[in-house]
Amino acid sequence: MRVHIVYPYKYDKCPKQYSAPCSLVRHKLVHKYSCLLCTKRFTNQNDLNKHKPMHIKKKKYRCPKCAFTFKNTAELFMHKLVCYTVYDCSFCKTTYKTEYELLHHECKPKGFTCGFCYKKLPTVNDLNNHRYECNYPKFNNI
Length: 142
What we know:
Elements: E1 9-10, E2 17-18, H1 21-32, E3 33-34, E4 41-42, H2 45-51, H3 53-56, E5 61-62, E6 69-70, H4 73-83, E7 87-88, E8 95-96, H5 99-104, E9 112-113, E10 120-121, H6 124-133, H7 137-140
Antiparallel strand pairs: 1-2, 3-4, 5-6, 7-8, 9-10
């Protein structure tokens, strides 16, 4: 047999309903201690006071590479792990900030080498055209 729970205790400032009066009293405190700068709510003045400096505390730790600022050295340290890590493409020598960018960039490895000047070229056609330009002996004697 299912029992239907009645919520007779309602708060006029929000749609919340409670089955016990003590629950309603506890909930009213959340509305009493609200941060005026953001949407956070607290059950007591002490927690609200601890929260307030978050909005006014200056960020005094600056990343020397990108100039982002942080509230403490721990945040700066975590940022540096990302900011100072670079990913280099072994084919085109381009540098990327993330591994995702490296894996998804459009780079074709240069797979064909001229036997005369050792220049690397992406396709066989490019290699054949190049051989005429670099005075490759086999092609110039024709």
